[in-house]
UniProtKB/TrEMBL annotation:
Residues 119-184 form the Polysaccharide export protein N-terminal domain. Gene3D superfamilies: Outer membrane lipoprotein wza domain like, wza like domain. Keywords: Cell outer membrane, Ion transport, Lipoprotein, Membrane, Palmitate, Polysaccharide transport, Porin, Signal, Sugar transport, Transmembrane, Transmembrane beta strand, Transport. This is Protein involved in polysaccharide export, contains SLBB domain of the beta-grasp fold.
Amino acid sequence: MKVDDLSDEQVRQIVAEMKRNKVSLDQIDSYAQQKGIPADQVLKLKDRIRALNLEKEFTTGTPTNAKLEETERTVDNENIISARDVQPMSLEEKRRMKIFGAELFSNKNLTFEPNLRMATPPNYRLAAGDELVIDVYGYSEVQHKLKVSPEGYVRIPYLGPVYVNGLTMEEATTRITKQLGTIYGGIKSGNTFVQISLGTIRSIKVLLIGEIDRPGSYTLPSLATVANALYVSGGPNENGSFRDIQVIRNGAPIARFDLYDFLTNGDLTNNIVLQDQDIVKVNPYKTRVELVGEIKRPAIFEAKDNESLQDILNFAGGYTDKSLRDMLRATRINNKEREVVNIPAEQIATFKLRSGDKIFVDSVLNRYSNRITITGAVFHEGEYALEGNMTVADLIKKAGGVKEEASLSRAVIFRLKEDYTPSGSSFNVQDALSGKQTIALQREDSVVIYSKLGLREDYQVKISGQVNAPGYFNYADSLHLEDLILMAGGLRDAASLQRVEVSRRIRGKTYSPNDSTTSIVAQFDLSTDMSAMTGYALQPFDEVVVRKSPTYSEQASVSIDGEVVYPGAYTINSKREKISDVMKRAGGLRPEAYAEGAVLLRKTFVNASDSAFLDSKLQVYYNKMEDSTAITKMQSAVSRKEQLLGINLQKILAQPGSKFDLLLEEGDIIKIPKKLQTVQLFGEVYFPKKVRFDNNIGFREYINGAGGFTNGALKRRSYIVYANGEVKSTRKVLFFNRYPKVKPGAEIYVPAKKESRGLSGQEALGITTGIASLALIIVTVLDKIK
């Protein structure tokens, strides 16, 4: 980049880019180094920035690209700069985008940027601002980079000025070589050679006028063409012509550019290189027509006077595969109204277009002229062509014949009547194939051959109980009982070989009013390896049940935790094993054990019947409750996996086998704590707390130690929960409360009184009125008695 060659607007663009990248004026040296700009050019750039008073742009928020909104827009030698605002498209813009070729100017991947790195064209004409690179090599070697002065000269050292303005590169090369021959004798003798090329090119100003999106004056590279100028200006607007674009030079048109040549044929012959002060004029369109429907590129096309509808179809890429080509339809605007025009295929090449025509290309009908269909129990179902005098037998043969499971007694043909209403008729497949029945086919006939398997319910058998994979299995002929057990993965370890039960539906039985049998049930005994076949063949929908052996039982265990000699898990030896039995196996209690605090945790639901029974009772209980909080608490307690069962371990150990000695169940947990030394107080006392147990004091003394009863305490409802889960409440003896005895580990609960609510004003008024009415009635009755 050479700063001297930059215009003021290009310097503003550089400052705008630096500001977007948050580069300050102090950081311009490192920023320029990243961009590959030499240090001497950086100093010149700083001077240009100060001269244009752009230093404040690095500290203020004023956008440096504000002048892009003006008519003057600049394109530098490397990049075409265009200010395109990203806005939602208006109706005019949407209509413009329907015009064929308009997308060319909205495609960001296509810039029409002039190639500044190609070899200089021989017909390129030099002008002020161009840089020539003169390379002399051979016996004499020297290189000059010379700028064409505003007067049109290049000043060659030791030679003087040479006029090159307006010359082509070829003409300038001849003239400069001839002049250099006067100081380099080897040029004439052929020992020294001269090569001249174009260095930095100049900028030119081009004026774009007419029906263009952003008309105005533009600064372009001198290698820019008509297409470059059109792209920078946004291209023709909604009324602009894409086919009549004039280049005016020195007041006279010198070329007409047709964008359709490029869009359809890739021809850029008339895309000439512009010169300084050229005018590019986009004329209004004369004739536009719109093509819609089944064509490859539906759009609005511009037509010249000598072009027909066939030419427009060629611009649109031709018909699609589904187009109806025999007749096109068009709507046309006349002087007073619209009309519809039919265009036969033979008139398309000669049909004269009128601006505003809208041509519709219809699609072929979504129907077939010779289609027939066969589905069902044939080997190759699908669509086939209807041939002359074709019958059902011919169609079945084309479909590979019927399958083995096909139902040959009856099939159906679905047919369309003349008014396209559906109808159906049946035929015998066997008769049709043997020739006894001949059925001619028609267009759109659909033949359905049914399968025997599809005409009945799926045959299945079921097995449940003590097998590895119970469930439903597909029935097969000659399927026996043992076969089904093998299909179910064999018997489980708990299965009983006796009394395997098979239940069977009653099918096809003659009705008898006295017969109330609903199913047939049979029982069989199996051998261990099922080698002895029972010979019992199953039938569809049979259900087999393999029951559990009555002598089979799985191990059940209980757990003892706490102060026993051998805590841990113990297996229940018999169904009659009790707590005392497992305590003996655990070695008995340790000296520090507290037997009165022993508890038993048992599962909430032992089996499915317990669960169903408890759920039913709880549902009735919940329905009677009014307080949702109480229901929630009850449900929470029931949802726990284990519940506390109070036991009296002292009596159990003292009297084994007594009523206190419970039978053990799977999952029971016996917990025996150490000797407890505290008592916990809850509820309506002034200072609920945990206190040391003292055998010499009673219930009231513990309450007094916690501050006594509160005013809201319900003393007569106080109760104690002992360490083993046993609960004892306060009893009323004459006019006195008799409180339960306190033991180690006990929890004392003092409930609260219910809040009493006085009568409201309305309730008091109602009672007073009722009493007054009653008194009046009594007085009236007494008067009558007198």
